[in-house]
Amino acid sequence: MPTADSIYTDIILEHYKNPNHYGELQYAEFEQRGYNESCGDDINIYLNSKDGKITELQFIGKGCAISQSSASMMIPMLLGLTFEEAIERIEQFKKMITGETPFPDDETFIEISALKGLVKYPVRVKCATLAWNTVRKAIRMADLKYKSTLQQG
Amino acid sequence: MEHHSNIIPWHLLSERKGVNIKAVPIQDDLQLDLKAFSNLLSSRTKLVALIHVSNVLGTINPVHEIIKTAHNHGAKVLIDASQSAPHIGLDVKDMDCDFAVFSSHKMLGPTGIGVLYAKAELLESMPPFLGGGEMISEVTISNSTYREHPWRFEAGTPNIADAIGFGKALDYLSAIDLKALHEHECYLRDHAMERLQGIGDVVLYAPARNYSGILSFNLKGIHPHDVVTFLDDEGVCVRAGQHCAQPLVTKLGVNATLRASFYLYNTLDDIEPLVEGVKKAKEVFACANR
């Protein structure tokens, strides 16, 4: 049984304190806000893309250590992916964090697996998935626009 | 100071009827500003809808005085007794409120059922809000007539099982000395407050007078949802979040708070794990801030 100390590890706390890819992207093509009604966790995702691939991804946010560190660890996992690949990775993560599938022992998921103890704290899962659900919405918008330009193309 | 359940219905009404909604301001001592309340009343005020005991602060509002003032201006009064009915008791006649509401799930009963009380003359004058079986007197293809209250407002097959469960919970609570219960809860709340203050860096949102047995607080610089995971480990259940009272929590200047709620099953022994969990959260996050 994991305890809170095993979740609030140095990795999580370090990402919370010094998040990666943090800051507003004023020239972002897509901006998406995510908000957890029950706790007030708030996140803004900024996305730029080229030829159906994510080229820039940043976030700003206010909230608990889980929601913010999850966003910080997520971004490097999605940068450079095609929209389809990114959506698939988001779905993979969501299955892992809800305990449906185990966290794999590979390089991609090594850092984010710091959150795996949350499987035993289901009420915190929505904190961990906030950034992921938000970026998925941004990707959907980007994808729709990309496909419509292809058709016009 | 209201719970969303006493804000949203008025927003919905406002969309339909265009009513104006005004809020009674809260003073720095976490009591309602009664002077401002008086000034808000006018001959156009139709309804004063007020929480009896705040579900965030624990503040017990002076409902007798407020109801009297409102009645003097010709307004009806609805009391949200969700926190008072289970913890300090409710006497609708003595209070002279026109409407009162409370929920079963806050008084040891099943979820999804509650009470809406209204004075008989109001019930008699109100049209049905929902049509169906059981609420009718006679039905023809072209017309229907309705039964008397309360049946007129109870269309369809009721939630019988939960009503029986709720009735049992009310029997159980009715046999308890609520004054003693209130004292017990306040004793635990005061004790928890003292112990939490001793930890340092704990911000309390606690009125100094007219309060019930709940305690809202935060640990400086740490999100309440992070703290709550440490409390979870200690076997302590508290609520972390906005408590369905976003305007109030915003007014406190925070995103969310922790809230310890004491009831008849709690004892002094429950306070140590609470304090331990808060201490642990503080230690772990202090390491991160090195």
Which tags fit this structure?
heterodimer, A: 153 residues, alpha+beta, Sufe protein. Chain: A, three-stranded antiparallel beta sheet, 6 helices, B: 290 residues, four-stranded mixed beta sheet, four-stranded antiparallel beta sheet, 11 helices, 10 strands, 15% strand
Summarize it:
Chain A is α+β, with helices and mostly antiparallel strands. Chain A contains 6 helices and 3 strands. Chain A has a single domain (10-152), classed as Sufe protein. Chain: A, CATH 3.90.1010.
How would you describe the overall organization of this protein?
The complex is a heterodimer of chains A (153) and B (290). Chain A is built from six helices and three strands, in the order H-H-E-E-E-H-H-H-H. Chain A has 153 residues and is an alpha+beta fold. In chain B, 39% of the residues lie in helices and 15% in strands. Chain B is globular. In chain B, the strands form three sheets. Chain B has a four-stranded mixed β-sheet. In chain B, strands 7-8-10-9 form a four-stranded antiparallel β-sheet, with helices on one face. Chain B is an alpha+beta fold. Chain B has helices spanning 8-17, 34-40, 63-72, 84-87, 92-95, 120-125, 160-174, 178-199, 224-233, 246-251, 271-288, and strands at residues 47-51, 76-80, 99-103, 114-118, 136-139, 144-146, 202-204, 214-219, 239-241, 257-261. The A-B interface holds A 3-5, 7-8, 10, 13-14, 16-17, 37-42, 62-66, 121, 124, 127 and B 222-226, 229-230, 232-233, 240-242, 246, 249, 255-256, 280-281, 284-285, 287-289.
